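Task: fold both queries, return tokens.
Query 1:
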Amino acid sequence: NWSIVSPLAISIIDLVQWLPICYVVGAEPVVEVEQYQQLFRLEHLDDQTNKQFSSRLFHYPTNSYKAMSVRDGQPYCLRHILGYRLSSTASMVLIEKWRKLAHPNVCAVREVFTTKAFGESSLVFIHDYYPGAETMQQRYFNNMQTATGMEGSGGATDKHASATLANGAMQSQRSATPASTALGLQPGLKEPLIWNFVVQLASAVRAVHNAGLACRIIHPTKVIISGESRVRLSSVGIMDVLTFDIGHTDQSALMQQHQQEDLTALGRLILCLTCNSLLAVQSPHIAIEHLAQHYSSDLKNIVIYLLNAQMNRSINNVMPMIGARFFSHIDALMCQTDVLEVELMKELQNGRLFRLLCKFGMINERPEFNMDPQWSETGDRYLLKLFRDYLFHQVGEDGLPWFDLSHVVHCLNQLDAGSPTKICLESRDEQSVI
């Protein structure tokens, strides 16, 4: 088998197809900002939930774009904060910390700058771009639900979402209480999937806090999901700049306060996932009672700990509460790594063989240069022509074309390695044999 297995190939093709896709809304888009070109908006015209929440959270209108960098030719997510004037560069100290932070569950901050390319003074954040990603709210929550009660925490429906929620709803057949029914609470995602999210988000929060920073955007509209269950914190660093108070005397104490708010926000997010409703945060006691009916006591204890704002909490205390589920997560990652390594070994030599085939195609069959001694089909070029026929024009005993990919790959590898193996080359008129 010389090709990638179907599920992996389909997922990669989906990502590649997402690269040129964007949602152009409103007027003609800006085509260039600094070294970023081909700007196009990433929001649907009808998808106002995320945009409205961003305005309430950041206190400024925001737009998200996919942009291509002329430096490396890679796509990036460009978030435009409209109408913001940077009054002090002191906040850039925090941005430098964000730029140094590298974590698989955090969208890296690449650059922050001010510009007038949009017609007014505004602030631009450059984050890594993940094609096909969608917010947790888009995938798991009804778009008609609002983020009421979660603003302080910060923050295309997937074809698997409805099936996942349906499977989670089958975990328990217990009847809901009248209070939970009034809030629209119901069994949410399957518990293994929720633990998967908890492990990833807790790891991200731990890395951010250890770097002396705070996320400040743990919210369904700011947690993005790629593939089946890979989550990342997006829009990090924006709140640090927009709300930076240069007159605050104790920045360390302020950052600790923001870190405590991160833990509360994480608890609210988990609670919403278990109740399948963003309204769960309005009545946490009822929601926790609902959680206890449908999920394990370990998950309930984590939520209670994270929501207990009366005590000084630490993300490091959450790790022991997750317990052995870390090993299940690591085992799954190792298995996925093994699959990727096997598939990579299949494709490793494709580029080398492709270059050989390109050279064959460029040299062989150039009749317009027959009078040129460097291009005419004599000497080595004649041997290459016969070898090309030996590769691709084989016939069987019945005289019919013989298709054998292994023959082509084996011969190309021998040619590239300079193998001393001898083969028989025959001209098309069968008058010459070498």
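Query 1 returned. Query 2:
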Amino acid sequence: LSSGSCADTTDGCPRIEVWNVPEPYYSANRKAMLERASLIPYIYTQVRIAFDTGVSIIRPMYYDYPKYSTAYLADQDGNFGQYFFGEDIFVAPITTPGLTNTSMAVSTIWIPPGMWIEKDTGTLL
């Protein structure tokens, strides 16, 4: 990783290596890179489907749930900002600032009909 004008140069720029950082950043970087690697077969499959159908791998909820008014919701406060990533994953990013006392953010999402499992905990939603 590099920034600014250092992107294409080999001299005079500090080298930033995601594996050469102190804890807890190293563990967080490693976990993120392993997670990304585990998604590569899924991404390849979904990109092929996108190529064959012309429907983007990243798409709004209303593509799959056009009869639900909640599939069209989104607001500037970051609520209902979810989207589909391929056919089997729906993503609900937290884009609101955390609370001052806990650093935890609050966001409202719509969970579409069907069986959905929270990835990190395995909780059935």
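Both queries returned. Flag for query 2: Residues 25-53 form the longest helix (29 residues).
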